[in-house]
Design a protein that fits this description.
By secondary structure, the protein is an alpha/beta fold. It is 45% helix and 12% strand. It is built from 14 helices and 11 strands. Helix 9 packs across helix 10 and helix 11 runs antiparallel to helix 14. The radius of gyration is 20 Å and the shape is globular.
C-alpha cells in the first residue's frame, strides 16, 4: 500500500487523530510500539491562520514520528487552503482533512462531520487544498449525517476524483456520535467499488488484535486505524503486529512494565507542559487504560490516582497499585 510516495508494509495499522490525545508525547510512544503512521490532534484552520499559540504547537513534529499527517478542519475554502499551506511549511508527510469529528462545537458549526450536510462544499474544499499544496492530501470522514443520508459510497468517488490519495472512513454517521456499533459494511462497499483506486482505511470499534485481523479479512481495507482503543494502551500496536504476523497473542509483559510505560508518559507530559498540565493531560490515559481492570478493591486507588495533583502523589498511588498486583494473593494478571 502507498499514499503518495510513502510505502507501507502489508496490513498497516494507524493511530487515529484525537483531540487532547495524539500530542507529540503520545505519538512518540505509539511509534515505539510499532504503529505505522500517526496523526496530529486536529487543527482548526481559523485558529491556525490567526497563529494562536496553542494551535501552532499542534503542528510541531519530530523526525522520529514519520510518517506523520497533520490534520486540519474548517468550513470555508480560503481558510482551509491557507491553513494547508501553513501546515506544508511544518513539513509533515501528509495533510489530512477532518470531515469526521462529530462534537457539537465542530459539527454544529458546519465543520468536521457537519460537512456531511454540504458535500458539494466538502468537495470544493478538498479540490482547492489539493491544488494548493505539493504534499499528498487525504480525508477522514463518516458514513453520512444520519441513517437516512449515508452517502459515503458516492462521496468517496467524488473525493477521489478531486485528488485525495487515501480515504479513512469511520463506520458511523454523525448523529450516532460514538454510540451503537460501527458499521463496516459501508466501508467494505467503498473498498469493493471497482472505481476506487486509492487506499481505503477503516476505523471504528477496533480495540483488540483479533478485531484488526477480522477487519482486514472481512472488508479488504488497505489499513486499519485505531482510535479510542489506543488511549492508555500504546502497546496495542505491538500486540496487533505480533498477532497479524504470527496468529498468536503476544505474551503479556510483567504488570510493573506497563505501569512504568504509563509513568514514562506522565513524565514526558510534565516535561512538555509542566506538572499541573502534564498530570491533567495524563488522567485521560490513566482512566482509559485496560491495565487496571480486574484489580480487587481498586475503586479507592482509582479515585486517588485521578485526584493526585503532583508527580510524587501520583507515582505513590501507582506504586501502591503495583504492590497490590504482585502480591501473592492476586493472580489474575
Amino acid at each position: 500500500m502507498k499514499i503518495g510516495n510513502i510505502e507501507f508494509r502489508e496490513n498497516p495499522v494507524f493511530l487515529a487523530p484525537m483531540e487532547d490525545v495524539t500530542d507529540i508525547c503520545f505519538r512518540h510512544l505509539c511509534k515505539r510500539f510499532g504503529v505505522d503512521m500517526v496523526y496530529t490532534e486536529f487543527v482548526s484552520s481559523d485558529a491556525l491562520i490567526r497563529e494562536i499559540n496553542k494551535t501552532m504547537q499542534k503542528i510541531e513534529i519530530g523526525e522520529g514520528e514519520r510518517p506523520i499527517a497533520i490534520q486540519i478542519y474548517g468550513r470555508e475554502v480560503e481558510p482551509m487552503v491557507e491553513a494547508a499551506k501553513m501546515c506544508e511549511e511544518a513539513k509533515p508527510d501528509i495533510i489530512d482533512i477532518n470531515f469526521g469529528c462529530p462534537v457539537k462545537k465542530v459539527a454544529g458549526k458546519g465543520a468536521g462531520s457537519g460537512m456531511m450536510k454540504t458535500p458539494d462544499l466538502m468537495v470544493d474544499i478538498v479540490r482547492e487544498v489539493v491544488k494548493a499544496v505539493n504534499l499528498p492530501v487525504t480525508v477522514k470522514t463518516r458514513l453520512g449525517w444520519d441513517n437516512d443520508s449515508r452517502i459515503i459510497v458516492d462521496l468517496a468517488e467524488e473525493l477521489q476524483d478531486v485528488g485525495i490519495q487515501a480515504l479513512t472512513i469511520h463506520g458511523r454517521t454523525r448523529c450516532q456520535m460514538y454510540k451503537g456499533d460501527a458499521d463496516w459494511s459501508f466501508i467494505k462497499a467503498v473498498k469493493d467499488n471497482p472505481r476506487m483506486r486509492i487506499p481505503i482505511i477503516g476505523n471504528g470499534d477496533v480495540t483488540t488484535p483479533e478485531m484488526v485481523k477480522q477487519r482486514f479479512e472481512e472488508t479488504g481495507v488497505d489499513a486499519v486505524m485505531i482510535g479510542r482503543g489506543a488511549i492508555g494502551n500504546p502497546w496495542i500496536f505491538e500486540e496487533v503486529r505480533h498477532y497479524l504476523e504470527t496468529g498468536e497473542k503476544l505474551p503479556k509483559k510483567a504488570f510493573g512494565e506497563y505501569v512504568d510505560i504509563l509513568k514514562e508518559h506522565i513524565v514526558e507530559n510534565i516535561n512538555r507542559v509542566g506538572e499541573k498540565g502534564g498530570i491533567l493531560h495524563s488522567r485521560r490515559h490513566l482512566a482509559a487504560t485496560s491495565v487496571f481492570k480486574g484489580i480487587p478493591d481498586f475503586r479507592q486507588m482509582r479515585i486517588d490516582m485521578l485526584r493526585a495533583n503532583t508527580q510524587l502523589e501520583l507515582f505513590a498511588v501507582l506504586d501502591k497499585v503495583v504492590e497490590t498486583v504482585v502480591h501473592p494473593d492476586f493472580a489474575d494478571f
